[in-house]
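Give me the fold.
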Amino acid sequence: MPHFSYNARNRAGQLVSDEIEAPSRKDALRRLQTRGFQPLQLKERAAPKRAKSKRSGSKKTSAPSETAASASGSDAKRFASKHRLPFLQALHDLTSSGLSAGEAVRLLANRLKEPTLKNIFSEVWDRLSEGANLSRALQDFPTVFDESTINLLQAGEATGNLNDTLARLIEHLTEQREMKRQLMNALAYPLFMTVVATGVILFFLFFLLPRLQTLLDALGGELPWSTELLVNFSEFALQYGIAVLAGGAFLVVSFWRWRASDAGRLVTDRWALRIPLLGDFIQSQTVLAFSQTLSVLLENGITTADALRMTEKQIQNRVHRAAFDEATDRILEGEPLSAAIERTGCFPDLVLDQLAVGENTGNVVPSLQKSAATYRRMISSQLNTFTKVIASGVLLSVFLFVGFIAFAMVSAIFTLSSSFSV
């Protein structure tokens, strides 16, 4: 990895000269700004020869921790992010009663009955007993604890407010879980209606219609266009239905794999922003993720630079994330938060005004919390609208299809009746 020598001023205004290791010049500047330095000069240089021995020495120093991590690495992979909130809640229940974090982890490792949580606490206690602090121990479980959670706990340990940090973090994760639950509930009814409607249609096409077609053929006569269309569609489905389903499944899997790539995700996220209702919902999600995450991070003592980078990872839409990444660069260069965010085009004027007021008063956190509360209510309202629109669309589609079937059958009966009367 490249090495850079730099001259910079620290927060006290003193001149500092040293070296830093970073993947690129841009990353080196970001790391210096994260540390509170104002870069004056930055030059790339070759890695020093002593770096190898230094790295090997540090490796020997951290051998016990690395050994524990590698020994249980395969076990840690079976833990998922869904265990994060129960872990923090159980830990907070004991730390709020006066126990230290280490004693709480040891007690929970021995007393818990739920096997997965018990295993997590046991492995965390193994690391704590080797001398690691809580935030360092949790870094060995990246599938459970993300970077923002680790940094929040680290800040809480440094300031002596670990219990308060746990409470805020639990509140934040609970709100996120509630939003996901509302989203799933909003989609459950339309999905149920779609499955039932599809089952009814398939039952008619593959079971009832062939029998009706046999009866109509026995009666003879020319069928109306609507009945002919329905019969031809049924025959096509019977003969080529499996091939069509296989082709459709192949296209869906191919599209999903393409979307999983960086280029595909960026393109599909840009398409999603242009869809009516969905685009507004995605924008609301971005504003909520930004306001909610940044307020929690800043409130718990995370530096602005680190908080912005962690918040960026919480934005799901790649188009918005790229715009926010550029805004973060401008903020780190000294541009006001509200001005940089305005350039992204992702945030409404009301949110920008609230941020500007927070910056003028020197306290952005309350403004962010107000925006988060507003957009939680807005997203709930949008989810209700989605439910009604999707459910109405499904019911209308089923009604039109069943109505067409009834029209085709009645038309066939009247046509054949008139032919007999003649």
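The chain has three domains: 3-46, 79-172, 177-422.
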